[in-house]
Write a structure and sequence with these properties.
Elements (H helix, E strand, L loop, with lengths): L4 E7 L3 E8 L4 E8 L5 H19 L6 E5 L2 E2 L6 E2 L11 H9 L3 E5 H12 L7 E7 L3 E7 L2 E3 L19 H4 L12 H5 L1 H12 L5 H9 L3 H24 L4 E5 L6 H11 L12 E3 L6 H9 L7
Parallel strand pairs: 1-4, 4-7, 8-11, 11-12
Antiparallel strand pairs: 1-2, 2-3, 5-6, 8-9, 9-10
Helix pairs in contact: 1-2, 3-10, 6-8, 7-8, 8-9
Length: 307
């Protein structure tokens, strides 16, 4: 019998969260616990404990499970790659969890979960192609096409964070080393960390991104200059996406997505860089906010679960 229940796991570097949802988008259970950073086996056991807690609430076992991780599954090796939670890299996580939970599981990048969540019942609902970007400590993204995640044969579809920022001089790119080993990646400009770095370059102050955006709203001249640079950087990054993918809508999540200036000023700036000199792509905030990751993970299981 096809189950009405869905379990999602959002595995982060510091916290791991579970949600129990039904197929009508209703939430029935949620729990968050610390992630055992650096310990792969304990990470698997934490996920198992959370899944069992959700099934106890549902009153039934063997439920479909989707998992969002800060990395991706290699289509060649089946192991985790590109994870900033480095203890996951090189591990057969999908296979290990399937064995531990005694069922098939679906594992994908956490930004893919954002895209799926927002395309299913969020800000991107009723749009065919949704590009969803996380502007947080890092800078990831996912693509949903007709309600399904686009991953690609290399498992890196949507990974705009590790392309160099378009229309940017090489000297400026070279100032920003990235954890991936290259320089000038979008992540080093467009994340909250990137905003702070821009402010440091311009004004010699080391301030959190949230403080900079708040100070800009209050009329602080230095913060406003920094944010002006950030908005132009963001326009470059998103215009490059539009020139390749031309999505129906762009949904933003992560801490920087709370900056109101983005939605007021970015649309006009995009037309400077999008081919043809015009752009009508809606830029919106994620409807489910911080919950999109775990909700999207739950939606992953809707096509492969039975009980």
């Amino acid at each position: 019998m096809h189950s009405d229940w869905l379990i999602g796991i959002d595995l982060g570097g510091t916290k791991t969260e579970v949600i129990l949802m039904d197929r009508q988008s209703n939430e029935h259970f949620r729990q968050r616990v610390p992630t055992p950073a650096g310990d792969y086996r304990a990470t698997l056991e934490t996920i198992q404990t959370l899944v069992l807690a959700a099934e106890l609430k549902a009153g039934v076992g063997g439920l479909p499970v989707g998992i969002g991780i800060p990395g991706s599954i290699s289509g060649i090796t089946g192991k985790v790659k590109n994870g900033n939670s480095t203890w996951l890299n090189g591990q057969p996580m999908k296979d290990d969890l399937s064995t531990l939970l005694e069922r098939p599981v679906t594992v994908t990048n956490d930004a893919n979960c954002l895209a799926l969540s927002e395309a299913t019942d969020g800000a991107g609902k009723n749009h065919n192609v949704v590009f969803a970007a996380i502007l947080g400590t890092g800078c990831g993204a996912g693509v949903s096409v007709n309600g399904r995640i686009l991953t690609g044969p290399n498992g890196v579809a949507g990974e705009w964070g590790h392309n160099p920022l378009a229309w940017t001089p090489q000297t400026e790119l070279d100032q920003r080393p990235c954890f991936c080993g290259r320089y000038g990646c979008n992540e080093t400009f467009l994340s909250g960390t990137g905003l702070s770095l821009t402010h440091q370059f311009l004004h010699g102050q080391n301030l959190p991104a949230k403080t900079i955006t708040e100070n800009a709203l209050q009329g602080d001249k230095a913060a406003s200059e920094t944010l002006n640079h950030y908005l132009d950087h963001l326009a470059c990054g998103l215009a490059a996406v539009i020139n390749v993918l031309d999505p129906d809508i762009i949904v933003l999540g992560g801490g920087m997505s709370n900056a109101e200036q983005i939605y007021q000023e970015l649309p006009e700036r995009l037309s400077r860089y999008v081919f043809g000199g015009e752009c009508g792509t809606p830029i919106v905030r994620a409807e489910h906010g911080d919950s999109s990751g775990v909700r999207g993970a739950a939606w992953l299981g809707r096509h492969n679960g039975s009980t």
